[in-house]
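User: Could you go from structure to sequence for me? I need the amino acid at each position, not a summary. Structure tokens:
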């Protein structure tokens, strides 16, 4: 395990999913991490430095949300493993901020009771106070502090931005505390358990130097869940502290303790929860008021859920929303796209005017402006897509979607929690693959990862948009839908549908033990924080422009070179037909031309010409590159006196052998279908390799996706041509 901040002070933020940890983290550090109303968004640890007037450097660690440190899923394990380090004195934080949702105290404080066992000062951040209607129903803060043995209790609202100075002050004071106060006896309700746990807890105490209290709670945790024992095994333990021999002794003692506890008429699986909740309820009851009443928002949430998670209306509403979103992407983006297109043309043409003819001018105009410009125009569509996705997620709606589709997802070998990762796949497969960590069963998780790249990501969007815009007529169908919009939705549907089919097939082959269960909190509906939504849109846009832009720029330049050289001059005096005119066009003798012509026989059955062939190769790194490739090729081929419009050149391109246009509606369909399935994204393979920790799965992924792409395109083109003949 990677240690955090060697030799530096740090504090850790821990809390249930959706309690506002990341929002607080952003306030404390001035960073802008993604906050989201969906459990499991912070799947990895995030770090930053505390903004403060003090010279002391204090680091802040944001951990994934968890309900308990006895882990049930991978994202929870991140925190549990962190805990193992701390328990064993490794890299302990100076203080822990236990973030709780003040509207749901009792359940949130469960985790706090676990944090108190460590002997590290715990600050209780009572977040979301803005949602507590009547503050007087909360327990006295001083009471909470005393009874729990907390370092401080800070009521606050990360949303409204208050309580933060108090929190910072509490941090400054508590990190100097050496011996935090002890909370009252945890086991008081179940004193008889002491004895039953004794053999195990004494062994732990003597073997690992635990305090008596820690030894006892660790023993309790070990008997509750096998996963707690697994934490003592490498690799979770970080390998530095336990022999296998020690672990097998723990196993034996655990087995004995489980027997003893069952014999005493207790349930070993629920014992930890029973003991902690009894203790908690006692403490909270002793505080003057028990019930925390919440703003009416919650009940409104419940009413909304009656409709939105309704077995029939739920899916209908969801699908209508999707249709609306995809139609909007198409219609809203026309104007900004035209502006960008005009802007690029203007820049290109003014460079043509300013610079004198030569290789450098060709490089800038044909290579860089032609290639990069062709992709830039799709920025508005990508931003609109991300905007809607963020809204759905932040409002809390996505969790409902997971809930509605759980049954269905389970049928196809996936999981309710697969829905969000799959949906984020519409934006980009990479965050989607990361988000699968919230799925607790390995089999369901792996299946989700394997089919995720079939969801049409925003890199496919430019390809669909270009082809549809140029070759699908903007006709109305059924008087209501636009044929272009429908084709667009169809491409998304095709990818999604295939993903579900492949998932079903894959789940028959992937063998693992155990089945995962669906437990998911439905977070209350919230009005999305517009600042956070726009930030998300901005950062995705930036990512697209700069990360993808860098690749596109580099490939465009290389490609321009390959398409422009070697420059051959051909004696054109005795050319008689169209085919010969084409052949003497220098681009055919260029390196790119040669590569394209070499693979042309393989892709000709799909209806693709050599230029698309070059695009298929260059876009292996990233799909959208195919567009800049085509743009560069057409620009190099063009007269050099004007920046050509890609869709115009495609429409005008004539195949010299047949004398027919290179592109037709059928070719456009075939090409789109190819990109629905094709595995053209290096970054996705890298992340799949990382998340599955093997080369096997990414290789299987590339193979099946490429085969699927080829076969599907083949069927579309050949089938379409056959139909066309009759
Ligand atoms: P995390 O999962 O604990 O990291 O939670 P996030 O920081 O991602 O926040 C979860 C949701 O709660 C987001 O929609 C936030 O906008 C919202 N939120 C965070 N803090 C507050 C708060 O103090 N009041 C209210 N009303 N909402 C909050
Ligand atoms: Mg978070």
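Assistant: Here is the amino acid at each position, in order:
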């Amino acid at each position: 395990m990677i240690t955090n901040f060697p030799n530096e002070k740090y504090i850790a933020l821990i809390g249930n999913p959706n309690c506002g940890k990341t929002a607080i983290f952003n306030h404390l550090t001035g960073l802008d991490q993604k906050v989201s109303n969906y459990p499991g968004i912070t799947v990895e640890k995030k770090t930053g430095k505390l903004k403060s007037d003090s010279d002391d450097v204090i680091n802040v660690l944001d951990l994934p949300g968890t309900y308990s440190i006895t882990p049930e899923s991978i994202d929870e394990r991140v925190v549990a493993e962190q805990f193992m380090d701390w328990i064993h004195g490794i890299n302990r934080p100076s203080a822990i901020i236990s973030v709780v949702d003040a509207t749901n105290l009792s359940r949130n404080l469960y985790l706090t009771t676990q944090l108190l066992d460590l002997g590290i000062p715990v600050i209780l951040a009572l977040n979301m106070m803005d949602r507590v209607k009547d503050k007087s129903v909360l327990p006295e803060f001083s009471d909470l502090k005393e009874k729990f043995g907390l370092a401080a209790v800070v009521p606050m609202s990360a949303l409204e931005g208050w309580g933060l100075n108090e929190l910072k002050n509490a941090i400054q004071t508590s990190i100097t505390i050496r011996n935090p106060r002890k909370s009252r006896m945890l086991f008081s309700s179940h004193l008889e358990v002491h004895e039953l746990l004794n053999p195990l807890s004494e062994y732990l105490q003597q073997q690992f130097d635990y305090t008596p209290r820690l030894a006892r709670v660790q023993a309790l945790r070990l008997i509750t869940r096998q996963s707690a024992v697994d934490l003592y095994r490498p690799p979770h333990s970080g390998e530095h502290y336990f022999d296998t021999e020690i672990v097998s002794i723990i196993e034996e003692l655990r087995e004995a303790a489980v027997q003893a506890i069952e014999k005493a008429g207790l349930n070993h699986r629920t014992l930890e929860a029973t003991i902690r909740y009894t203790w908690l309820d006692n403490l909270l009851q002793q505080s003057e008021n028990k019930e925390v009443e919440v703003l009416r928002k919650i009940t409104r949430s419940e009413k909304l859920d009656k409709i939105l998670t309704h077995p029939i209306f739920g899916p209908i509403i969801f699908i209508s929303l999707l249709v609306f979103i995809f139609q909007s992407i198409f219609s809203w983006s026309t104007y900004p796209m035209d502006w960008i297109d005009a802007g690029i043309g203007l820049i290109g043409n003014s460079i043509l005017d300013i610079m004198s003819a030569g290789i450098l001018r060709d490089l800038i105009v044909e290579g860089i402006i032609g290639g990069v410009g062709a992709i830039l125009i799709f920025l508005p569509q990508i931003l609109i897509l991300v905007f809607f996705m963020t809204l759905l997620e932040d409002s809390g709606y996505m969790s409902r979607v997971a809930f509605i589709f759980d049954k269905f997802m389970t049928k196809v070998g996936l999981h309710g929690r697969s829905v969000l990762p799959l949906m984020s796949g519409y934006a980009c497969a990479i965050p989607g693959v990361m988000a699968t960590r919230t799925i607790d069963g390995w089999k369901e998780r792996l299946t989700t990862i394997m089919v995720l790249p079939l969801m049409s990501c925003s890199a496919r969007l430019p390809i669909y948009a270009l082809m549809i815009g140029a070759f699908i007529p903007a006709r109305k169908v059924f008087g209501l839908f636009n044929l272009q919009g429908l084709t667009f939705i169809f491409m998304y549907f095709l990818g999604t549908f295939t993903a579900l089919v492949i998932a079903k097939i894959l789940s028959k082959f992937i063998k693992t033990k155990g089945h995962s269960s669906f437990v998911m909190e439905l977070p209350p509906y919230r009005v999305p924080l517009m600042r956070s939504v726009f930030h998300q849109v901005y950062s995705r846009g930036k990512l697209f422009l700069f990360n993808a832009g860098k690749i596109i720029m580099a490939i465009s330049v290389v490609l321009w070179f390959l398409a422009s050289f070697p420059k051959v001059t051909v004696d054109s005096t005795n050319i008689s037909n169209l085919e010969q005119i084409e052949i003497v066009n220098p681009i055919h003798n260029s390196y790119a031309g040669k590569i394209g012509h070499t693979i042309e026989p393989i892709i000709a059955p799909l209806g693709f010409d050599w230029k698309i062939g070059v695009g298929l190769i260059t876009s292996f790194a990233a799909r959208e590159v195919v567009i800049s490739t085509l743009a560069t090729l057409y620009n190099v081929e063009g007269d050099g006196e004007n920046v050509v419009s890609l869709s115009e050149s495609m429409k005008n391109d004539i195949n010299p052998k047949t004398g027919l246009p290179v592109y037709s509606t059928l070719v456009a369909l075939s090409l789109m279908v190819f990109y629905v399935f094709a595995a053209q994204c290096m970054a996705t393979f890298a992340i799949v390799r990382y998340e599955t920790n093997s080369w096997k799965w990414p290789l299987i992924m590339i193979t099946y996706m490429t085969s699927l792409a080829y076969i599907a395109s083949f069927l579309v083109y050949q089938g379409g041509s056959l139909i066309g003949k009759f």
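One structural detail worth keeping in mind: The pocket of guanosine-5'-diphosphate (ligand 1) is lined by residues 15, 17-23, 35-37, 41-42, 65, 127-128, 130-131, 157-159, 394, 526, 529 (CB under 6 Å).
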